[in-house]
Design brief:
Elements lengths: L6 E2 L1 H8 L3 H9 L6 E3 L2 E5 H15 L4 H13 L4 H45 L1
Antiparallel strand pairs: 1-3, 2-3
Helix pairs in contact: 1-2, 4-5
Amino acid sequence: MSSAQKTYSIGELAKEFDITTRSIRFYEDQGLLAPTRRGQTRIYNQRDRVRLKLILRGKRLGFSLAETGRLFELYDMDKTSAKQLETILDLIAEKKSDLNQQLEDINIVLMELSNLEQSCLDTLNKI
């Protein structure tokens, strides 16, 4: 059986990606995955598996499910991926900017905590 024809159960995908079946059903409810059904059984194909992998990677990188869904829609509409790649680059730039701002904020708080710590130590030494 070729990988394009391979199918997966919800349990197999949950185990492979170390997530709950509830999470997978949530992604399905959000329209990000579209398994076929045999009775009550969900049957996921290679496309669903790849999408699940991309959803989880996107989450790790800070992309919202809406942003990931938008990328999937762009890919489905434009198989050349030019528009999708441009959108990804825009999202990357936005995420990097957000992270740099957070890093700056963290450094400021760390500096303020260090100053407060030193002030407390100085006061303790005077007591």
